[in-house]
Amino acid sequence: MSIPFQEMAWQLAMEMDKQVMIKTLKEVDDGLMKERDKENLKNQGLRARYLTTRLGDISFKRRAYYDSNKKLKYLLDEDMRLEKNRRVTAGREKVESMLAFTGGSYRDAQMRCEAFFGGTRSHETIRKQVIREGTKIERRELLQNGDCQNKKEDVPVRDMVIVEVDGTPIH
User: Fold this and answer.
1) How far, rounded to the nearest angstrom, does the alpha carbon of residue 77 sit from its chain's CA centroid?
2) Is it the case that residue 165 has pLDDT exceeding 70?
3) By the 8 A CB rule, do 143 and 135 touch?
């Protein structure tokens, strides 16, 4: 069974885009190395990094540094605003969350991401990510409204609880 031309062209374009991204990350890392405070940041060489992005999964190397307190830092990760130990970019998480919201189920979002991006993350991982983002948004809204305390009695009461079992919403 041969791969249809359109699918082959799509896979080739995605692979080329990944290579451009990897090359760009290397160039940014090289620039950060040259601009760093050489007195306080000592280069410790290259370390491997794996990320799940909108383009799919990529592997690349970035430089590690010890600061004046002997704490390991990755300037490229900081420049990209990646949280420590995060393996998924914010852009990919936004797409997955949007697909989960519009698709009505986490399994559907997982299948669509797999079809579009090639790589896969479980529907449970996407569910946890949506919950984590929702919690961040609620905290941000509470802070904006001047309600800085996060007490148990401040948790809003829900009129309806939706439970998803095997892709079937139960109200």
Assistant:
1) 12
2) no
3) no
Q: Rounded to an integer, what distance in angstroms lies between the CA atom of residue 164 and that of residue 171?
A: 9
User: What is d(CA 112, CA 100) in angstroms, rounded to the nearest whole number?
Assistant: 9
Query: Edge-to-edge strands of the sheet including 56-66?
Result: 42-53, 56-66, 72-73
Which residues, other chains included, contact 106 with Cβ-Cβ below 8 Å and sequence gap of 6+? 100, 123, 124, 126, 127, 130, 164
CB-CB contact of 65 with 75 (8 Å): yes
Q: Does the pLDDT at position 63 exceed 60? A: yes
E-strand stretches of 35-117: 42-53, 56-66, 72-73
Q: What is the pLDDT of residues 11-44, one digit of tens each?
A: 889 899 999 999 999 999 999 999 999 899 999 9
